[in-house]
Amino acid sequence: MKHWVWFASLLGVLFTTPRGLAAGLIIIDPPTWPSPGPQPPIVAPPWPPGPRPPRPVPPPYPAPPPRPVPPSVRVYPFAPLEVSYHRADIRIRDQIASVAVEQEFYNPNPGQLEGTFLFPVPKGAQIKKFAMEIGGKPVEAELLPADRARRIYEDIVRKMRDPALMEYAGRDLIRVRIFPIEPQSRKRVTLSYTQLLRAEAGLIEFVYPLNTEKFSAKPIRNVGLKLDIETTRALKTIYSPSHSVEVKRQGSNRATIGYEVRDAKPESDFQLYYAAESDGIGIHLMTYRPAGDDGYFLLLASPGTDVADQKIVPKDVAFVLDTSGSMAGKKLEQAKKALQFCVENLNESDRFEIIRFSTEVEPLFDGLVEASKQRREKAADFIKSLRPMGGTAIDEALRKALALRSVGDGVHRRPEISAATVNEPAAGVADQNRPFVVIFLTDGLPTLGVTNEDQIVAGVNQKAANTRVFCFGIGNDVNTHLLDRITESTRAASQYVIPEEDIEVKVSNFFTKIKEPVLANLKVDFPETVRVSKLYPNALPDLFKGEQLVLVGRYSGAGSGSVVVQGTAGRATKRFAEDVKFAESAAEHDFIPRLWATRRVGYLLDEIRLHGENKELKDEVTELARQFGIVTPYTAYLIVEDEKERGVPLTTQSLPQLQTDDLARGVAGGAYRNLSVERSGGGAVAAARYGLALKSAEAPADALALGNAEAERSLAFSAVTASPNRGGFGGGAGTASAAAAASGPVTGPAVSRIAQYTQQARFVNGKNFFQNGNQWIDSSAQKAAHASRVRIQFNSPEYFDLAVKKPEARAWLALGQNVQFVMSGTLYEIFE
């Protein structure tokens, strides 16, 4: 008996990604402690003498029926240990990675256990200097080749009757026997190894498989990765498509990358790309193209940090701060600290102006001035003197800031003409070739002067030219439509600082990123043999030192050629070219389609929010959300309405629980309809932050989680009244009282159920699956009604034969015993 369970542990790590060494997993043998024996029955005490209390009166509203929602966290009975923490310290020198891993396992059970610690070796990986300790003592490990592991694989799965480990099939395995594992005790495991990393087209890929940690019996308290990368040539591109990471560059050849999460069960492997170049801007292209379809591409462009000081483009900055009465207290104090940080971090060649506004508009210098020490000191005194009072003259403040393009230095002086200054603007004349950035902070709605949203936006469009207007909305009472339309038309971005966040941190982090411009007014040219479309971001941002452009899109055609990135640096136009290949067929980089779809859904929903809905927009959002698993309260409502209209049977629908929950569907529908209605309030701010999370996605899974959190917050603000008979609800004012109403006995549970329903989807190996009852259904199965069908029983010889012949299906088979998926035009149905 112990042998097959031990082999189950072998299976647990056996089948993993081919690009990195996995984290460890302990599979436990059957427990040997004695049974506690029969327990006495529990007998309820008799009622005391006297009358019984009356039955409770039912509430005056129709309570929804209880609906069992499948747990979003899967339980694995063969892995009863908890992982307390997981830490990895990774040092990469050019293409050599040295990895040190530390894990702690905890046995919460009342008896002594024994088991096997396993981790897989990827096919083709060049592993050297492997060492391992358990409890601080060195141990010997045994390597099992893939063919031996495969011979025992089928018997393991049959006896376990759990396909969770299917996704790892086909790899060598290193195993270590662990005995004993005492009750309520901890086992600390450390291992280290070195690995040669693969490079392709200049990009080096590092993968650290984390997904074996999903077998922990409880969420892991702390998961942390620290990567220190050092390259001989200048380090340019650093990009993770799997996780949101913090990148700290240390000079031109070194960077530290950090990832940390708490109370989580990692479901995906950690993936990182990096590249080193000799000079200029690093340009790299990745493509993915399924057979018979247009392709997807990801373009990365980064100047790195090895940009000489003379190549940093001088910029003009106008800081525009709302000092109306509503900014009193913590908001204004934090905003003043943020403004002081920005002024202190201006480059010596920059020019700046500060404009405060309330009932009136007051500039500090009456023009753009050089960021000299004396003027920074004067600006500091001005910032300290700011006091909250009056109304909100947004239109006049913006007009004053944009007019700075035609106003030069406030101090008249005669310019000296020399070789060093021949390219500098004359005093009294603003240089149209310098990047001009307006940083606009407000916490309210326009109340004075022009207050019409359309007129304010039109005025900005008339005066902005190449000016970037970055807006910071503070609190919940801002007009999100106004700020987002301004940033949309000026190729900038909005950020919203909710009450529990720090304004100083948000603004300071933003200004640090844009401190040193390298290229403005970006343009990308592609080879003539391909046609690109649906690019995101669709308005290219400027490029700054230490930052990078992450551009995704679709393409048709194929071939090799040059991608040219060009932009302005002062008065000069600079071009950077790189030879690339747009493939006719490409199976690697399968993360690109979902990254592209996540951004596109964000842009389409923002289009609906800012400019209104039409059928084409709604239909495309629905289809992309269903195909790529971009399931949020907004898209979930669109999916259920679409499938109801098309008459899709409930047994094959994507979200059957939401379809049959009238109250929850009504709350979700009302939130979607309010997207284009609510302009201000907590719900509107949360909806704007939701769109920003999706539009700026770099790691789709993390962006979706962030977007879902904002969408659920929007539901809580926006839902005021609900009627299960109408299947809808009235729009709320988006105030704290509305949020309180939403958390009441009717809508509060509905909001919670919507959040649960959106979790019943899994995006696995390029496909999205929805859970319907006890089966997982491929989202493309609805369109395969006339496809040929193959029914295969779980654990049958045909089942394992399919896993051998179609390795791409292993991850889908691992979802459960009942799975439907489309592969090569055939609908496969796995049944128990």
Care to describe what's here?
- The chain is built from 19 helices and 39 strands.
- By secondary structure, it is of the alpha+beta class.
- The strands form 8 sheets. An 8-stranded mixed beta sheet has the order 6-5-9-3-2-12-15-14, with no helix packed on it.
- Helix 7 (480-489) links the parallel strand 24 and strand 25.
- The radius of gyration is 30 Å and the shape is globular.
- The two termini are 24 Å apart.
- The relative contact order is 0.09.
- Mean pLDDT is 83; it is low at 1-22, 31-48, 52-72, 408-429 and 720-745.
- Total beta strand runs: 39
Shape: globular
Radius of gyration, CA atoms, in whole angstroms: 30 Å
Helix vs. strand class: alpha+beta
The pLDDT mean sits at 83
Strands across the major sheet, in which order? 6-5-9-3-2-12-15-14
Beta fraction: 25-35%
Q: Number of helical segments?
A: 19
Taking pLDDT < 50 over at least 5 consecutive residues as the criterion, the unreliable ranges are 1-22, 31-48, 52-72, 408-429, 720-745
**Main beta sheet, described?**
8 strands, mixed
Classify the helix fraction into a percent range: 25-40%
Instruction: For the record, give the distance between the C-alpha atoms at the N and C termini, rounded to a whole number.
Output: 24 Å
